[in-house]
Amino acid sequence: MKIYADVLIVTSCLVEFIYLHTAAALLHRKLRGGRVFTACIFAGVMSLLICADGGTFIGALLITLTKAAGIVVTLLIAVKVKGFGDFVRCLAVFLAIRAVYTLLIIVYWEISDAKRIFVRNFTAYFDISLLKLAAALITAYVLLSIVETVKRRVCSKAVNYEARFQCGDYEVTLPAVADTGNRLCDSFTGLPVVIFCCDDMYRHYALDETESGMRAGFRLTPYSTINGIGLLHVTSKGNVTITDDSGENYDIRCCVGIKPSDQNHSRAIFNPALLE
After folding, report:
1. What φ, ψ does residue 238 adopt, rounded to 5°?
2. CA 261, CA 197: separation in Å to the nearest integer?
3. Residue 190: pLDDT above 60?
4. Rounded to the nearest 5 degrees, what angle is found at the Cα of 7, between the Cα atoms of 90 and 47?
5. Together in a domain, 147 and 179
6. How many C-beta neighbours within 10 Å does residue 84 have?
7. What are the helix (H) ranges across the chain?
8. Do 30 and 127 sit in the same domain of this protein?
9. β-strand 161-167 against 228-235: which pairing, if any?
10. What is the pLDDT of residues 111-168, one digit of tens each?
11. Which residue among 25, 93, 112, 244 is least packed, with the fewest CB closer than 10 Å?
12. pTM higher than 0.85, yes or no?
């Protein structure tokens, strides 16, 4: 089969795009467009391994190691991992997804009379015109968007939450709101921040005085949520537990941000991804 480099690279980029977004959906991660684009381009270049000669043991070993390293680098480019344990979890999910999709490709290749797929050196080449490929991609994107929209509207349900903050003998429990827009992370620890809008907590730590807040271990951080924008007093002290209306508790590994309540309406704001 004649292999065209442009078709090979473009199709590999598209396939990698599907791999990454499927992994992100299962891991409940939000990918950044720039990182995904770079990762897909890298994977597209790595697909040129299909042309390498793996007829000898050394050649096959080098191809295998290069492909394995390429998969790891692709994942690290696209996904921001939070530590070694998180990396292992992400890699396991990513490899599982690749295995499932590869199995589907091989099955289709075996049953296809036209033999439109060529597999070599862990790389699949789709013998299809770029125009047809673009049409298939647009169709798949539209269908997935429709399915995701229907899923959100049909399957979503209102859940009530409570957030409990405990630091030593001091404890506060507030109604909590799940806000996907709260992506604030502490610049020192890298941990996500759960925001407590509470006058009692604000007065308890005397956060109206900057020096008192600094002595208590707080630092000022800009924020933006459904509750507004401004400066937030953030600390890594204390423990946060989120409880849903079914009584299930989630111990959250996070930092805590404290600000005055809005019109005496105390509540906590957290990203629902923290519950996954």
Report:
1. 85, 170
2. 4
3. yes
4. 40
5. no
6. 8
7. 5-27, 33-46, 57-78, 84-111, 130-155, 199-204, 210-215
8. yes
9. unpaired
10. 665 556 666 656 666 666 666 666 666 676 677 667 667 766 665 556 789 999 999 8
11. 112
12. no
Write down the pLDDT at residue 194. 93
Side chain identity, residue 148: E
81 backbone dihedrals φ, ψ, rounded to 5°: -85, 155
Q: How many domains does the chain have?
A: 2
Task: Report d(CA 186, CA 257) in Å as an integer.
Answer: 9
Residues in contact with 59: Cβ distance below 8 Å, sequence separation at least 6, in sequence order: 52, 53
CATH number of the domain where residue 230 is located:
2.40.70
Neighbour tally for 239: CB within 10 Å: 14
Same domain, 192 and 138: no
**Are 40 and 150 part of one and the same domain?**
yes
Q: Among 100, 101, 85, 81, which residue's Cα sits nearest to residue 29? A: 81
Q: What is the pLDDT of residues 226-245, one digit of tens each?
A: 656 778 899 999 999 999 88
**199-208 tens-digit pLDDT:** 999 999 999 8
Provide the domain limits for residue 110.
5-155
